[in-house]
Amino acid sequence: MGIRFREVSYHYPQNHLQFHQAIEKISFQVSAKGEFIALVGHTGSGKSTLAQHMNALIFPTEGSVEIFGHSVTRKRNRKIRYNDLRKHVGLVFQFPEYQLFEETVEKDIIFGPLNYKVPLDEAKTIALKTLAQVGLDESYLNRNPFNLSGGEKKRVSIAGILALDPDILVLDEPTSGLDPEGKRVLMDLFQSIQFETDKTIVIITHDMDLVYQYTSRVLVMNQGKLVFDGTPEKLFRTAPLTEYQLSMPETIKVLQAINERLGLSIDIYQKTAEAAIQAIKEAVRQ
Amino acid sequence: MKNIVIGQYVPGDGFLYRLDPRTKLIAVIILMVAVFLLETIIELVVAFGLVILLLIAGKISIVRVAKGLKPLFVLLLFTFFFQILFNKEGTLLVEEILSLNPGNLGLGLLLTVLWRLLARFGKFKTILLFLWIAGIYCLLRYVAIAPQWTTFSLQIHEKGIEMSVFVVIRLLIIISLSTIMTLTTKPTDLTQGLEKLMRPLKVIGIKSDDFALIISISLRYIPTILDEANKIMAAQASRGADFSEGGLKEKIKQVISLLVPMFIIAFKRSEELADAMESRNFVPGKKRTRIHELSFGWKDAVTSVVILLCLAASITLKVIG
User: Fold this and answer.
1) Residue A186 is part of a domain; what is its CATH number?
2) Any idea what DSSP says for residue A194?
3) pLDDT above 90 covers what percent of chain A?
4) pTM for the complete prediction?
5) A57 and B234: CB-CB below 8 Å?
6) Using CB atoms within 10 A as the burial measure, which of A36, B102, B137, B271 is most buried?
7) Which of B239, B245, B268 sits opposite A111 (nearest CB)?
C-alpha cells in the first residue's frame, strides 16, 4: 500500500496558463506508515507537480501512479472514485487562503468530513480533535478564520485536511512565510502528529535546516527529474549539492567556517543549533 | 507570464500587424458601413472576394478565421432559415402542407430521444443535428394519422431565398472583418487605440484613459485569476469537494467553497495592485507617458485612402442603384 510512482512523466499542455516544470520518468515509493519525507528542490524543479500526482489532482501523461492499490494513469478509469483516493492522501496547499471559506473555523474543518458523508455530530467531534492536534484550543471553533493570524490560518487549513484522517499527509511549503520560531513550532507539531498517529508525512520545503533536523528521508527534484532519494545524512555528507541547486544547512555552514578559520576539527554534521553550540563549547574547553 | 495573450491575437508579420490600431479600428467601422450600403448579392460577393484577398495579402490563414466563425455558426444558420421561412415577398416557389397529429408527435419524440442518445458519443454532432431536422420535417410532411390537430403551410418565396443568402454573406463579411482586426492586434494595443480615439469625448466627461486602464488591468489579470481558480479548485478537491457529482444543495455548497476564496483573493490582489501603483507615483487622472507611443505612418495613410475609396464606391453604387 501507499503510493508507488512508476516511470511517471507529466507535461503541461502547450498553451497552458500555468508555468510549471514538467516531470520526467519518476519512480519511487512512499509507504503508508511512519515515514517523514522532505521533498526538496530549486524553485521550478517540479516539486508541486509531483505532489499533485500523489492525490490524483493531475493525471500522469506517461507511466502510472499507484495510490492505495488503485492505478492512476493517463486515462480516467470509471471504476476508480478519484475522490475517495484523496481521502487517503491529504494535500495541504501552500496558502490557506485557497481553502478557507466558511464563517467559522468549525464549519470550515467539517467541510471535508461532510463531503465524505460523515454524520454531523461525528464531524464536530473530529473538528475538536484535529484542532487540538494542530495546537489550537476549542475557543477557536467559533472564530472567523479570516480574522486569524497567518500562522493560525495555516494551522486551521492543516486541521481541515487532518479531519479527513488521511494515511499520508502531503504539505506544500507549510513553513513558508513564518519566522524561525514559528517554523520550529510547526515542524514539532508535524513530528508529534506523526509520532501519535503513525501517518506518513511528506513536506515540500526549501529550508535545509528543517530537512536535516526533522526528516528521515529526502527526495531531491532538479529540472523535472528525481535526482536523489535517501537519508538526509547521505544527502549532506556525500551528494553533489551545488549540482542539485541546493545549499547546506546553516549549522553545518557555520561549523565549517569555524573549522576553517580557527583550524579546528569539530564534527560539522550537527542537526540542531543546540548541538552545534554544545560541540563548539567542547572544542573551546579542549 | 509574459507569453499569455487573451483574445484571439496570433503573432505574425503581415502588413496588417504593422498598422496603427487606430487605423484598423476606424477602417473596420468604415468598411462595415460600406458593406451595409451595398444592395445586391453580386456586390456583396465582390466585397467578400475582397475580404478574402485581404486575408491572403495580410498572410492570415483562412482556416484560423473560419475557426473564429465557428461559434457564430448557429447564428448564421438561424438567420438563414429565418429569412427563408418568414420572408413572404416575391413569387411563391414551394408550398407544402404540414400537419401535427398523434402519429408524428410520437415518432418525433422517439426521433429526438434517439438523436440525443447518439449525440452523447460526441461524433458527427452537426450531421446528426441536420438528420434530426430532416427527420422531423419528413414526419410532419408525410405521416398523416387522424385526428389532425392542426395543419399549417410551409411556403418558400423567391425573395426569401435571395434575402437569406444576402444576409448570411453580409454577416460573414462583417464577422470576418472584426476577426481580422482581433487576430492582428494585441488587446493592449487595441485598448490604447480606443483610448486615443475616445480622447475627444473628454469634453462630455468620458475619461478615456481611465477606461483604457480598466480594460488593460482586467486583461492582465484574467490569466492570474484563472491560475488562482485552478489552485482553489485543487485545494477544495483535496477536501473531497466533487464539482461534478452530488445534488443541487451540495453543488451550491461546493460552488460557494470556490467563490469565497476567489473573491477574497481578488480583493486582496486589487488592494496590493493599488498600493503598488501608488508607490510608483500613479495619480488617477494625471497625464502619463507611454512606453510604446502609437505612430501614424505612410502605411496607415495608404490604408486610409483605400478604405475611403471603398466607402466612396459603395456610396456611388447606392446612389446609382
Assistant:
1) 3.40.50.300
2) H
3) 35
4) 0.73
5) yes
6) A36
7) B239
